[in-house]
Design a protein that fits this description.
The chain is of the alpha/beta class. Helix content is 22%, strand content 24%. It is globular, with a radius of gyration of 20 Å. The two termini are 34 Å apart.
């Protein structure tokens, strides 16, 4: 058994990386996977995770002792930020290990990205009434805490050039924005529709 823990403060993206990598590792090593605190999963209303084993904080004392594997992280002095890459030592973990880390590398899927489609499934697509027309392109503009790190924020010229290119390639006529930072996106593109409601939206 290996375990991951969903925690307060994790974003949906962080949780999905953690889960999909843990699932991939569990299959590679032929271990069962267990999720602690599934109730803290931010996609629980609309996503189903391919896992059968769950444990809550109140049950921890009843479980066996576990080791902890921490993914190696590095300080990038240019970005002034902690980053991670593929940590191959994860393949040396033993059973009864909690794995912790960022795990944002495709190498953890061992040349098979298709399996992610098995790991994460929409609960019921019929409940989602938002339709994206063929001539619409969605821009995912990250703001939030990224604005504290100037090297992470893309200049407006990046988006302008990208929109010009995609118009030529795919006959795009209209753009909409998905963002975690409504005010920032509105300042960049005041005339675009901005989707910044619930995670489900």
């Amino acid at each position: 058994m290996i375990r991951i823990i969903f925690k307060e403060g994790q974003g949906l993206g962080n949780q999905l990386w953690l889960f999909t990598v843990a699932k991939s590792i569990s299959e590679k090593l032929n271990y069962e996977l267990e999720i602690q605190n599934i109730e803290k999963f931010k996609g629980k209303k609309f996503l189903k995770l391919d896992c059968k084993n769950f444990v809550s904080d109140s049950e921890i004392n009843k479980k066996y002792n576990m080791e902890i594997f921490n993914e190696r992280i590095f300080y990038d002095s240019e970005l002034r930020y902690l980053v991670s890459g593929y940590d191959q030592t994860i393949l040396n973990i033993k059973e009864n290990t909690i794995i912790e880390g960022i795990f944002q590398s495709e190498k953890y899927f061992f040349d098979n990205l298709e399996k992610i489609k098995r790991y994460i499934i929409f609960k019921d697509r019929k409940n989602f009434n938002r339709v994206i027309e063929d001539d619409v392109c969605i821009l995912n503009i990250r703001g939030g805490e990224y604005k504290r790190h100037k090297n992470f924020i893309l200049p407006k010229s990046y988006w302008d050039k990208g929109m010009e290119n995609i118009k030529k390639i795919n006959n795009i006529k209209k753009f909409k924005i998905v963002t975690d930072d409504y005010r920032y996106a509105k300042a960049l593109f005041p005339n675009f529709e901005i989707i910044s409601d619930s995670i489900e939206e």
